[in-house]
Amino acid sequence: MTARALINNSSVGKALEALKKGRMICVFDSDDREGETDLTIASQFVTPKAISILRHDGGGLICTTADPTTRRLLGLPYLTDLLDQCKKGYPLLGEIKANDIPYDSKSSFSITINHRKTFTGITDNDRALTIRGFAEFLGDFSYNKAKEARKAFGRSFRSPGHIHLLNANDGLCSKRQGHSELCTSLALMAGLMPSVTICEMMADTGKALVKAKARAYAKRKGLVFVEGKDIIEAWRIWSK
Asked: Which of 54-63, 102-111, 201-210 has the lowest mean pLDDT?
């Protein structure tokens, strides 16, 4: 059996097929990291109904990823870098450790956006419009120069907004194993626009939904459940 065939016959292969069909999947990162499961959908397939499901069945923060190529083309900043540059004008920021997180070295948060055709930006319709618009922007390959791409982006989006963009790290899940990288790697392996929309699954206790219950949810809803370690191995094979 070839390496690609091994991927196709694994939980990762099932996840890729689900993403291609516009379905949600459940992605667990690692017991040694956040220990969280994110409801995940390819950004190009996000609908108002999908946003509603993310809100009700996920309950965490709805975020949309940007792949490294897009990040470099647009110059999408890391929020931590922006805060660092603002320390002189806002001394309070000098007292805040922007990268002081217990599970990784740096947050993937970037800017927040709203599509210019939205009103408040927070409704299910508005958020879906912003996310799909972002995915469509990634699919327009006519922007071969950074300056042109930035101007086009500014014509379509405003900031701040209600969609949190996450910058996937260079090397994706071969370098960093956060949901931003794991799930964006899946989108690329599936041949989709390199952006996914994710939302952490929360429990009624106020804590993250434990893996066993997230897996049970996936089974009940007929969704694919995939673990980060399997995505990392599949990406290693796929990206050779």
From this structure: 102-111
Helix (H, G, I), strand (E, B) or coil at 38: strand
| CB-count exposure of residue 6 (10 Å: 0-12, 13-18, 19+) | middle
Say if residue 2's pLDDT is above 60: no
Instruction: Report the C-alpha gap between 96 and 235 in whole angstroms.
Output: 35
Structural domains of the chain, with CATH: 3-238 (3.90.870.10)
Nearest to 43 by CA among 186, 220, 151: 186
Element (H, E) at 44: none
- The residue type at 99: N
Which residue's entry shows tokens 């975020």?
63
My answer on whether omega of the bond before 160 falls inside 30° of 0, hence cis, is: yes
Give catalytic residue positions.
38, 63, 103, 114, 162, 200
Tokens of 31: 């017991």
C-alpha closest to that of 46 among 221, 197, 162:
197
**Main-chain phi, psi angles of 59, to 5 degrees:** 95, -10
Q: What's the pLDDT tens digit per position in 27-41?
A: 999 888 998 999 999
User: Which helix or strand (DSSP H or E) is residue 164 part of?
Assistant: strand 157-167
Q: Which two tokens stand for residue 59?
A: 């309950």
Contact between residue 209 and residue 201 where contact means Cβ atoms under 8 Å apart: yes
CA dihedral of residues 52, 58, 60, 65 (deg, nearest 10): -80
Q: Rounded distance, CA 136 to CA 23, Å? A: 18
